[in-house]
Write a structure and sequence with these properties.
This protein is of the alpha/beta class. It has eight helices and three strands.
Length: 143
Amino acid sequence: MATIRDVARRAGVSAASVSRVLKNDTTFSVSQKTRERILEAAGELGYNKCFEYSAIQGTRGTIGVMLLYGEEEEVEDKFYQIIRVNIKMELEKNGFKVKEVFESRLDANASKISDYQGLIFAGYSTLWYQKKVFRQVVQGKLP
């Protein structure tokens, strides 16, 4: 994952300039050409400012936990609940926000997960490969 320093090197500016441009700091005076160079470098490197800024502030972004089973299985078999709860506790303990998505809602939430910093898949689904979200991950369209 690219950092502010990587973007700065590519654009030929300081890391502070990159930071201020990416934050849309209106008090920072920079030419339009330099601004465009920074934004282009960030795009080329796939820089994700949300991840880096949130890490500085003590939170590490959101992790999607894709639960390859239904809510009814969790009620019937506490094993799945234990898995889900422990994954969530560990992630939150380490500064991540967690978005849990049960199998029945995977495809409906597929477009939203591109904002996540990462994905965890838990469960047993025998039809996992038919889900849109898995095809997008395998094709490299999601983290």
